[in-house]
């Protein structure tokens, strides 16, 4: 036969802090807070990237302007050197001065690269380093130019290669960020290529005009240079702003630019190799003016790009600070909400916990004690109509309900305590009444048995009467035990004067069933005050009977007595099965008078009786292990109950 099998789902591990309300509130608020912080972090990363790009663009534009300064000086040195190689000796001093300006521009570029290389893109910094490699042969080229052994076309190509490498290096690692910055950098690079084309045309035709005609493929180079210039200018116009286009138009509308156009028209007529009558110095001067104007436009464009980059960087900085402030605000608000929410819950709960502790530790025990001590007919306080307990204004409905439930629990507990007190009082009074009735009946029975014993002459019948007398005596002790458990005063039996300890022991032994197994081995002489004899005899009888019950049938129980200073000690020794240390500790707790017999198992009632009697007598009773096996019950009687023995023994009963 098969059936459904219920499997226990695996328990997930508890989150750290989940065992407290504050921890749970923190976790609940931490999840959306973390999500908001992630979104804020993405915004911070994006703004940081924009800020870094703007900062890199500023550095790159600054370096590009330095590169353009070097390009400008190389372009001038290229044109002058080409004119010198074309036969214009008047350029020799200008070439020498121009070389110094070129070297100064190169040194300035290296200094800027060393300072700004960390802010440049890696590709841009690497390309600029590679672009300076051709300049290593600059001194050799200059030596060949001074010696007149350099080829004009080859020298022009060398300078052009160096300039082109620098311009191409400007395009490497181009900034990618805001559209205006990207287009501005691209416009700056397009203008740089157009300026190079104009400068290259200046240098190329400078040599042609110095030589008086085109040679070889120089005219074809001239047309290619003009086509490159026009293409670069067209790209610039697509990317430049209207103000930048106006600056470019102004550069081409100057008188020098118009004369340059006339010179170019004359150059076009010499395409067949015919003679050209253009003074190289005039061409150089007007063309240099145009190139300088174009460089000024480049600087203006670069300044515009740098300004845009600065504005973008400032905006990115503000937005970055805003995102960081927003993140801090989110954390602060979440923390404040967590603290306020947790305190709004934990404070009322703490008050409820304090109230519960007060109920359990003070109010409820006090109410129960008051109920137990009050008149049964008096209504007990703390009922359902008693509001009781502090109010918790301003708290959540759930906590208010919890407080009301706690008060209901208190009222119910008080009501139950009242019912239990009544029940306990009724039970105690019933036991006491039953005990007194039994005691009265047993006293009459013992009186009748004594009368029959005095009248009986038959030994067999007399022996049976003695057994009946012994049985009635045991029943009387049980009735007295019932009165002791019910908290009644001492039994009516009392002896005037003093009684010896030996007689007290004999009286106790007479009240147990197997009295023949009890032996008073060594009882030192001493006297006990009469008012304590009945209770002490009852106490010893309970201990002796307990020892007889838990020892072998053939084994004797021994009683010892001795003085210990002002006190007198008795010991009931058995060698039976013994007790565990835990069970012996529990029994000693009962013998000390603690605990209630109404909640104790019935097999421990004898210990309650002994504890109650010991408390009345002011005696101390304790169980200890017997050497070998068994248990020894020690009874220490206070000095107020004992007296030194005298020559005359007083015995009464």
Automatic annotation (TrEMBL):
Region described as Disordered: spans on this chain: 373-395
Gene3D superfamilies from the UniProt entry: Histidine kinase-like ATPase, C-terminal domain
Top EC class of this enzyme: transferase
Record SUPFAM superfamilies: ATPase domain of HSP90 chaperone/DNA topoisomerase II/histidine kinase (SSF55874)
Domain Histidine kinase/HSP90-like ATPase intervals: 535-639
Domain of life: Bacteria
Transmembrane segments: 25-45, 320-340
EC number(s) from the headed UniProt entry: 2.7.13.3
The reaction(s) this protein catalyses: ATP + protein L-histidine = ADP + protein N-phospho-L-histidine
InterPro entries to which the protein is assigned, alphabetical: HATPase_C_sf, HATPase_dom, Nitrate/nitrite_sensing, TCS_sensor_his_kinase
Record-annotated Nitrate/nitrite sensing protein domain positions: 69-305
A Pfam match: NIT
Signal sequence interval, chain numbering: none
Keywords assigned by UniProt, alphabetized: Kinase, Membrane, Phosphoprotein, Transferase, Transmembrane, Transmembrane helix
PANTHER family: SENSOR HISTIDINE KINASE TRCS, SENSOR HISTIDINE KINASE YKOH
This protein's name: histidine kinase
